[in-house]
Amino acid sequence: MAEQNQGQEKTEQPTPKKLHDARKRGEVAKSQDLTASLILVAVIILAYAWIDHVLPEFRNNLIGYFRSSVQHGLPDSHLASPLISLTRDMALLISPIFIIVIIAALFANIVQVGFMVAPEAMKPKAQRINPVEGLKKIFSRKSLVELAKNILKVIITASVVYLVIRTMIPELLLIFFQEPLQILRTIFNMLLKAATGGAIAFFALSVFDVIYQRYEHYKNLKMTKQEVKEETKNTEGDPHLKQAQRQKQREIALNQIREEVPQATVVVTNPTHYAVALHYDENEMGAPEVSAMGAGYLAQRIREIAEEYEVPVLRRPEIARALYSQAEPGQQIPVELYEAVAEIIAAVYKLEQK
Fold first, then answer.
1. Closest CA to 319 of 271, 287, 351
2. Is 337 helix (H, G, I), strand (E, B) or coil?
3. pTM for this predicted structure
4. Average pLDDT across the chain, whole number
């Protein structure tokens, strides 16, 4: 069967089952560039909102460190204490960045693939450490495309950053006449503007990468017509087996019809599509029961057996359809059909008396 599939072209779209199985293996259409660009955008937004707070704190921490160093003396063994304090303060100062990075990464992944747990993707596989397979991946079409994409991203992003920095060169030359805090603020603002330009370009490129990754993902999961047939066969069952099962069910229904219809009180028909056999004993039963029912061929057999055993057959299309859709063999008729069925039973009794 695999040899047959090799000669066929993959022209069919992947089925829901194929997509589901690929997702279980961790194979989804996901762009790492979009994740990275969203993280960069989130950090830049935080930096813009945070700049007025972080720069004075940064300056105060440095001033406190140098004052402590001068007080203790550079060769003193106590110099480690202010350094540890500075490191702790700086870590607390930039800790929101790490929180934002984690949130942005989770958000980017959820937006692309939703909540996903793929244990199969974490299982060790021998082919991952196979050097031959590794060389194939390095020189594959996918690797060459990724290399071309990365080169293009670097060129476009670097060009945008260069153009942004170029417009700020006059401002950069004036920092020599500014105070230290103002110099720090100017440099920080320039870096933010350059990063913003690069982030916008990177985000625009990542949108195209998302489209490409989805196209490539669906292309790789395309199926041959034979694969679709095999999956349908495995999912829905062998058609021959299903036909045999239907035949068996029909035989069971026919046996039930042969046993129950001769004892029925009346058979209600559509007249050709449906037939329902009713049984009623006023001394033992509170309401009529459905003893057998059928559609199509089974309905025809019910009518034939009823005529053979002289069971009354009445044409009541609406009642027959209602009984067929609302009742089951061996159960009493629905309450809402009591009056209509009572009229039918009464008509049968009159026929018997005549």
1. 271
2. helix
3. 0.50
4. 79
